[in-house]
Every structure is written in C-alpha cells, then in structure tokens.
Design a protein that fits this description.
The protein is mostly helical. Helices cover about 55% and strands about 10% of the residues. The strands form two sheets. A two-stranded antiparallel sheet has the order 1-2. A two-stranded antiparallel ribbon has the order 3-4. A hairpin with a 4-residue loop joins strand 1 and strand 2. It is elongated and about 65 Å long. About 15% of the residues are buried.
C-alpha cells in the first residue's frame, strides 16, 4: 500500500525535513546556528544577536564555542571589552561556510520537492 492511499487528502501533504550537520558528539550546523551567525554579522555582537533571537547570551556563547571548537579555523572572532567595547565578527571561513550551507540547503529543498511529487503520484 502507498502512503498516498492512506492520506485523507494527499494533495494537502508535503514531505519536509530539517537540514543539520551533526558531529560525533554534538551538532555542528543547522538553521539556528546559521541565523545566529547572520545576526552576529549584522550586529557585531553575540549578545545583540542572542537578544534578537530571544535566546540567552549563555546559549549563544555556547553555540559560538561549539562552532569554533569543531572547525579547523575560528568561525566567529570575538573581542573582549575595553575602550572600544567588545564585539564579534565572522571570519572569512564562516562566510564561506554559510554560502556552502545555503547551496546544500537549496539542493535539500529540491530533494524535498521531488519527494513530495513522488508522494502525490498515482501508484
């Protein structure tokens, strides 16, 4: 029996999923970390990025540490306070990583579209 045969109105269903890259011990990259990096790039601050996302600074800091720990080169470069104040910025590697993730996400979205079409085909 097909999945479609079990659905009340198959045309209203779609195949979906979340794209994440996970390491052996912890998550590496996914929508939340991408958004955090985008907001750090826009604000120049982990704290401001976290606030915009409704996330605690501690959680955002832990995500930044995890990203940097799992990469071969720092992705988020931090500067502690002082006369100029603290801040954070993305490294070139982080910007390239975000572009690569976006390309992977586009391929993933196409896969999901194709699988939705497969789901709706008459079998």
């Amino acid at each position: 029996m097909s999945i479609k045969a079990l659905l009340l109105d198959a045309s209203t269903y779609r195949v979906s999923g979340m794209l994440r890259i996970v390491g052996p011990d912890e998550p590496f990259l996914g929508p939340g970390r991408i958004e955090l990096m985008e907001r750090i790039a826009a604000t120049g601050s982990i704290n401001k990025a976290a606030k915009e996302m409704g996330m605690s600074y501690k959680k955002a800091w832990m995500m930044v540490q995890s990203l940097n720990r799992q990469a071969t080169t720092p992705l988020i470069i931090t500067q502690t306070g002082g006369e100029q104040g603290g801040g954070a910025q993305l490294s070139t590697a982080a910007q390239e990583l975000m572009q690569a993730y976006q390309a992977l996400r586009q391929r993933f979205e196409e896969f999901l579209r194709q699988e939705t079409q497969n789901l709706l085909r008459n079998e």
